[in-house]
Amino acid sequence: MIQIIPAIDIMNGKCVRLQQGAFNYQTEYS
Question: 10 - beta bridge partners?
């Protein structure tokens, strides 16, 4: 059985989505 664990990255108090874990490429959500 595969267990999926979601990852949440928080930068400067905001939730961000990193592209392949690269901090240079991120999408910021409020």
Answer: 15
Quick one: pLDDT at residue 3? 94
Asked whether the beta carbons of 4 and 13 are under 8 A apart, the reply is: no
For 9-23, what is each residue's pLDDT tens digit?
A: 888 888 888 877 777
Q: In what order do the strands lie in the sheet with 22-29?
A: 9-11, 14-19, 22-29
Higher pLDDT, 4 or 19: 4
Closest by Cα among 1, 29, 2 to 17:
29
Q: Which residue has the tokens 């905001």?
A: 14
